[in-house]
Sequence to fold (423 residues):
Amino acid sequence: MILDLFAGPGGWSRALGVLGVRDVGLEWDEWACKTRAAAGQLTIRADVAMYPTGPFIGRTSGLIASPPCQAWSMAGKRLGLVDQPLVHAAVEDLAAGRDTRERLLAACRDERSLLAAEPMRYLQALNTVGEPEWVAMEEVPDVLPLWKQYAAVLRGWGFSVWCGILNAADFGVPQTRRRAILLASRVRTAQPPTPTHSQVEEPESLFGPGRARWVSMAEALGWGATDRPVPTVCAGGGPGGGPEPFPSGSRKTLSDARERGTWVPQPDGVVLQSRREGAGWAAKHGTRENRAASAPAPTFTAEAHRWSWSLRSNNQANATVRPLSEPAGTLFFGHRANECTWVAEPVSALANDTDAPAVPEPIRITAREAGLLQTFPADYPWQGNKGQQFSQIGNAVPPQMAAHLLAPLLDKPFNPDDFTLAA
Fold:
């Protein structure tokens, strides 16, 4: 079997499925397990730190591990960096067959820090019978020193090992997500996959096949400038939280004439109230209760004006903000489901126009949009409420990047076209 520790909602599993194989995932989060079940993935709901290694000994060909990154992530307090010496000590002890986790855990500032040492407990047990054949691990960049420690141990056990930092955008993911990667194999030379994309397109030449330009958010989401749909937005619902400002089905959409700057309400007959027009709006257009469903939708004050839309990756002061024509920054999702938002700015021609309407409020990204930016299918069966879905998406490995990492280890052919980013 292929054992997937901290399996999450199925990023690695989705990649393996495209490659024609399956894994068994260990995952504790209830909603991630439900997502995996809905996606048809084999799962054991268990605490990786408590589950025994015995059931896997003599049966495991590959081991995958993406320990939780919250203790190390720039989106959090990063107490994992403070605890790093303790994690290194745990890895050293576990590699020698000594379990000192309880003592070291008591000294950790963040109890999640020590989870990054858990893969070594499984690797040491499996190594007693010459398993696994290969290893793939992923974490935030600050964990690279720990991966180097793992690499030294694995080389001592006969593995070929590579570890380093890779950018998901270089492998067709519409997100500049940098991650520390470890790849190891007992039967093949471990090396990073060849990038398929670059920030600037590289034409084919005598020196190589060339690389395509990084995939933009607009491409991944199918939001073109001509006949494709573009972001779903609404008149309210800024980043401060709260309920949806309008019922399902009553949101406005930016039309494919975004370059002309018009807003075209969906033809669902629902009347929307514009916050910018105040109480006079209802007297002018009628209310939802007294307006006929067949009546034409009102004209909004933003018509004939143009907006430039970008994605703000989180609600921190130093958040990455990228236009639709570029990949997203790393998507962060914390305890609120709306930290990642679409933000609008007027084009330069309107920037100094005193008669221009107010800039639309930030619009929360949807789970479907966030999943597509992680290269999950548009119809991936995310389970749970919005916060639970966003938490799963933000923590997941982008399946397309995972497939690039796994294909050489499995000696499987991989065609990136097998991943459809927009559906």
